[in-house]
TrEMBL record:
Organism per entry: Aliidiomarina minuta
Name of the protein in question: Transglutaminase-like domain-containing protein
């Protein structure tokens, strides 16, 4: 069994002053030393960087698809197409009322292809992407990698504050360790089911810093944004396990560390969630079987 201590954030302050937002934190790092950091961001637009994120349900996707799919059918000269949203919009139903069997099959295939294209377009516009888990279940989720990459302007001031704390000679491992201790101490919110409630409860890095609270997907996205801002040349991964997410970095793991393999390399696993305090390479006991059994999927930066 792993022996862990509890992460501790003992001060958080957010103040608006002269069109700026001032943030200040105090916490205990992985060596149990007291740390403090502060940074400032423009108030205007901060929470909209990269997007004012909101959950995207299947019903909302289907409501947006329906008029465009009708227009596609109309423009194709197919006036016999009927499109319905049964079960409160949880599914989309396409019926063809005329034509030969061959014509109906051809038209249905074209309509399904267009439906898929429209869905991908809506997901991209709303910062979502497809999720296929280790068991081949398919759904969709916030595009955490894209959100992390496009959150660099929002976290740049904080990343620079970390760089000043670390000094010029710090390694990616040093940065990872300090940022990890910071993110672990941010109060934790339970992750909603990715498949039944995609994006519910998710905070972008800017929103997480503003609210000082987030689930594991939100925390992983924040640490990914911060680490990639400091070390853009070091490849990293977001690792999805059943009901959880972790962060992995292209740093050679130690003998007793946990890691995942990607592109024939071993990536050091980290646990950003908290409130337990974990060193890089250490994870909670409940997730060890998933790592050993390969019950995970990864997305790379």
């Amino acid at each position: 069994m792993s022996s862990v201590s509890w992460a501790e954030q003992f001060f958080f302050q957010r103040q608006a002053e002269n069109s700026q937002l001032n943030f200040a934190y105090q916490w205990r790092d992985l060596d149990n030393h007291s740390r403090q950091i502060s940074f400032q961001v423009p108030q205007t637009g901060f929470l909209q960087t990269p997007v004012n994120f909101r959950p995207l349900s299947p019903a909302r996707i289907h409501r947006e698809i329906k008029p465009d799919l009708r227009s596609f059918a109309h423009d194709s000269g197919w006036r016999d197409v009927e499109i319905n949203l049964p079960h409160g919009g949880e599914s989309i139903e396409i019926n063809l009322r005329s034509g030969t069997a061959g014509q109906r099959q051809q038209r249905m295939q074209a309509l399904l292809t267009e439906k898929e294209r429209l869905q991908q377009e809506i997901m991209h516009r709303n910062y979502y992407n497809l999720l296929v888990d280790h068991a081949r279940r398919q759904g969709f989720k916030p595009d955490h990698v894209r959100i992390a990459e496009e959150s660099h302007p929002a976290v740049q001031s904080l990343a620079e504050a970390f760089a000043n704390k670390l000094g010029e000679d710090s390694s990616p491992y040093d940065s990872l360790r300090l940022i990890l201790s910071f993110v672990q101490t941010i109060p934790y919110a339970e992750l909603d089911n990715r498949f039944s409630s995609p994006g519910a409860g998710f905070h972008t890095p800017a929103r997480l810093l503003f609210e000082n609270r987030g689930d594991c997907d939100s925390k992983v996205t924040l640490i990914a944004a911060l680490f990639s801002a400091l070390h853009p040349q070091t490849e990293s991964l977001i690792v999805y396990l059943p009901g959880h997410a972790m962060f992995a970095v292209d740093i050679e793991p130690g003998e007793d560390d946990y890691w995942v393999r990607h592109d024939e390399r071993r990536f050091l696993l980290t646990e950003p969630t908290g409130p337990a305090r974990f060193e890089p390479g250490r994870i909670g006991d409940r997730y060890v079987p998933h790592v050993y059994n390969g019950a995970l999927v990864v997305e790379a930066f």
